[in-house]
Design brief:
291 residues; mainly beta; 2 helices; 10% helix; 34% strand; globular; disordered N terminus
Length: 291
């Protein structure tokens, strides 16, 4: 049965349909509306969300941190250039460390809690680089709040990333396959350390950043500002810091005005002995020292 307008014959309906199809085929194709570019604030929020989409990091990480610095005369400072092996539990950043001499682990087992912008070597390479720095340098005994590790809650709605509140975007430039953002903090400049971001244009993955840090002088209350250029890479789907180039400012005169850190041999073991993270038991496990 053919159904049409009241009073219309089947042949009339068929002819009407053919004419309508022909008219649609002859009409120009509608141009899709252009995709709206994100605002600078929204773009920054998207970059941050992309970086944090890889979190939390794997439960454990091991790596060798190589530190090199120059004397105030510009020569290699061998006394303050060294390698350290780290075994880190990411949930609280507790770490067993050993200094490496002549590429052989012969140093004493020591406990550490690597962190950026504090009075010890920066790390770990899986650190949240968007995390605000502490108000003041914290002791190794301080235990940071663990990152959420539970499964996500049921989704009952959708919230879009609309902006970034810790920073404002001063400029955006396209440089080859990267976007280069210059940003400044809207509050707490000593805690919100990021100043420039370099991200992949297509994926918004963070490639490099420039941030502020601090140089703490042992045995002194003097603290100097440092500019860190941080280069990142991806390892098993996790962003990791590969290298850091530091330049000390604020009129600092002395050894170590230029310092370089390189993170080598990064790996994510599935398990590490619990005693690694209990310094009180180190002497009891000397026969089990990791290599």
């Amino acid at each position: 049965m053919v159904t049409g307008r009241p009073g219309a014959s089947p042949n009339a309906v068929s002819m009407f349909s053919l004419l309508l199809i022909a008219a649609l085929a002859a009409s120009p194709t509608a141009t899709p509306s252009a995709i709206e570019s994100p605002t600078p604030a929204r773009l920054l929020g998207m970059i941050r969300a992309k970086f944090r989409s890889h979190r939390p990091p794997p439960a454990f990480i091991t790596y060798v941190l190589e530190r090199k610095q120059l004397t105030d005369q510009g020569f290699p400072d061998y006394a303050e250039s060294y390698k350290t092996k780290y075994w880190v539990r990411n949930v609280d950043r507790a770490a067993l460390t050993r200094r490496v001499f002549r590429d052989i682990n012969r140093g004493e087992m020591k406990f550490d809690r690597p962190a950026f912008n504090e009075s010890r070597d920066p790390g770990p390479p899986t650190a949240d680089l968007f995390e605000p720095a502490p108000i003041k340098s914290r002791p190794v005994s301080f235990v940071p709040t663990p990152e959420p590790g539970a499964s996500s809650l049921p989704t009952i709605g959708k919230i879009s990333v609309t902006g970034e509140f810790d920073y404002r975007v001063d400029s955006i430039a396209t440089e080859g396959d990267e976007l280069h953002l210059k940003i400044s903090p809207t509050r707490d400049p000593d805690r919100n350390r990021l100043r420039e971001l370099f991200v992949d244009r297509k994926t918004l993955e963070l490639q490099k950043l420039i941030a502020t840090d601090k140089l703490f002088i042992l045995g002194s209350s003097d603290v100097y500002g440092v500019t860190f250029t941080v280069t990142l890479g991806m390892l098993e789907g996790t962003p990791v810091v590969k290298s850091i180039h530091g330049v000390v400012g604020d009129g600092y005169q002395g050894d170590g005005s230029i310092v370089d850190y390189t993170f080598r041999e990064i790996a994510f073991p599935t398990k590490l002995p619990e005693w690694y993270f209990d310094p009180k038991s180190y002497q009891q496990h000397e026969a089990q020292e990791p290599s």
